[in-house]
């Protein structure tokens, strides 16, 4: 018994949580009062441990009064613990600073990992979040951004519909002229310190780069500012711009991007 309690505590459970888990595993479905009586611990401590364990998904809770608790099957319990430990180990390996790399760039792949990292950072935002996404990705983070605004965080949005002015004139190089984009780009800058740049779509896995490097943060903020300024100019001077430079400013773009029109 002592050895089991010792290993449960090694996995991060408190002494009281470990005792409660073992007690429920031995006796099955029980109320907090029953657990308190059998362990000899105070009701307040037992109830606090039960609520923490239930909140973390390690216990089943029944309906009715008094609430009754029961342990997960041991195979399910160890699977959950193993998965969380593995996730923590991978995060430590990826994020731990290394000599000579004070502001590393982290590569992420898969919806689960990318969205989990983004959710953590949005939840930590204190001052400002700058968002440049497509509508599909905007729907995934809308609730978290609303929560940030309720905390007093300034949230700035830009929603991309794939109609960027440069889009159709960018040279494809070795790619086929009819190549289909691999996905939808997205970027986030939190408190002008942390940023994520990535791509998501149906033709491949979600991928992203995360960093606190000031150069990347500055590039993303500049891109956001440029998009907002162009949007405001189009709304204010759209007819004049089209008359002078052509639809979507072909004359200007053609000067600087190979493959674009030279004369309009």
TrEMBL record:
Gene3D superfamilies: Winged helix-like DNA-binding domain superfamily/Winged helix DNA-binding domain. Coiled coil: none annotated. It comes from the Bacteria. Pfam families: TrmB (PF01978). InterPro entries: TrmB-like, Tscrpt_reg_TrmB_N, WH-like_DNA-bd_sf, WH_DNA-bd_sf. Residues 8-75 form the Transcription regulator TrmB N-terminal domain. PANTHER family: HTH-TYPE TRANSCRIPTIONAL REGULATOR TRMBL2. This is TrmB family transcriptional regulator. It comes from Paenibacillus zeirhizosphaerae.
